Amino acid sequence: MKxxxxxxxxxxxxxxxxxxxxxxxxxxxxxxxxxxxLDYIKDLGVNAIWLCPIFxxxxxxxxxxxxxxxxxxxxxGTMRDFENLVxxxxxRDIKIILDLVAxxxxxxxxxxxxARKSKDNPYxxxxxxxxxxxxxxxDQFGGGSAWEYNEQTDExxxxxxxxxxxxxxxxxxxxxxxxxxxxxxWIDKGVDGFRxxxxxxxxxxxxxxxxxxxxxxxxxxxxxxxxxxxKNLFTVGECYVDEKQITELCGEGRGELKSSxxxxxxxxxxxxxxxxxxxxxxxxxxxxxxxxxxTQKLDVLYPLFTDNHDQPWxxxxxGNDGVKRxxxxxxxxxxxxxxxGVPFIYQGQEVGFANSEYGDISAFDDIETLNFYKxxxxxxxxxxxxxxxxxxxxxxSRRPFAWNGEQGFxxxxxxxxxxxxxxxSDRLNVESDLKNEKSVIKYYRDLLKxxxxxxxxxxxxxxxxxxxxxxxxxxxxxxxEKYLVVCNFAGDREVDLGFKNKKLILxxxxxxxxxxxxxxxxxxxxVYKILDE
Length: 533
Ligand code: GLC
Ligand code: MG
Fold this sequence. Notes:
The protein is of the alpha/beta class. A hairpin with a 2-residue loop joins strand 16 and strand 17 (about 470-480). The protein is about 30% helix and about 20% strand. The radius of gyration is 23 Å and the shape is globular.
């Protein structure tokens, strides 16, 4: 049996700790807050949690700048809080996945503080240094050159992201050993896997594009995760793979990663981060269908996702977050999460959270957004500027989670949260959603229950029926069972799906029930069991 089959039973919920639930009233989410909400997570039908970085960090990039990989960031709590979270999660059969940031550390990490002191410091070689910048790479946050001058050694160091995030030198065997030790430390604490932050960048080729898989990439990943102790971890790379790379990296027996994200369905919506491109769900259904077919043929584990902490809400960008918010959010979930692969739900996606409208830069925190603002303010009119920022900012999905409509939205008892609330929190929150006849959360529960109960949705073959004109129909087949998933993201239509004898088992539009023909209005989703033909 394929090694990855067992992961098809997993449903992963991504948590952004700063914004999930604040237990101690300092305006910042924390580990104890997450522990409080485990029943909510469990009730959704989730069985694994991926925590964005919880380690000690100056927070110049919200925890992706780590100053101690073996300690918990004090605003999130203590090691005891972490152990408590793990124990309570395990009690509920929920697995824990941590975020491994291996491409860079914080400039406040002990290694870097030593490294920058002198060329003969034992840690100097833990980072990349050069007398002059080796190329014209710019940092990924729009902050300018990726090379920063260090006075003590009269050299430049490389930072693919912020100045406070120096890239570590993976060509140094000591660095590779350090990361193996860090992984082992957390295995011993009971974690089940890692989401690997920009792992594709660890092997550098200074003459090429930064994003290229460098010459030793596979070798280094294998050293990290192909070991006896680490080989059974669930690992998913943020590696921006194409079809060839996903097999090379996630193929059975390679001892590298179990899976990796691709971003085709994300990138089609904008040019860079802040400039919208006119696109349609037609592109999205085609990309979804293509990756399902490709990963099935290649026999690799595919991560099913639309949202994460680096993107504005998918439903705001590609769907409808206005009058058809419920229908659109649930149709997206139906298409993606009944597919072949492992579902990743980002906190709040299951409530149908939506982008915010702000017109003041003080409402933003994300370094990339602030860089964009600095570079653009005065050059384009304010109206356009804030339109672009509200469209693309990562802060959209990072705003405090709204649990109810009260003061603090059930997120915090503090007067002010670390980042202003989403502008529609009074209407878009867990409590009001659950009261709604059309509840996104309840639909997610039904959807995940279906996935759990029907083996075909987990292990079944994916068979494409139709994917064009913003309309998708696919089958999942397992043993003698057949299920049909239909989602219509475009105009109203009547279609002949060709299966006369079928039973509707899930829909986001109960009107379908009274219709004899296969008629779908925009954002209808319907799931059928195919009966004997
Ligand atoms: C990844 C993270 C993102 C972070 C960056 C640098 O893309 O998801 O949030 O800013 O890496 O670590
Ligand atoms: Mg707190």
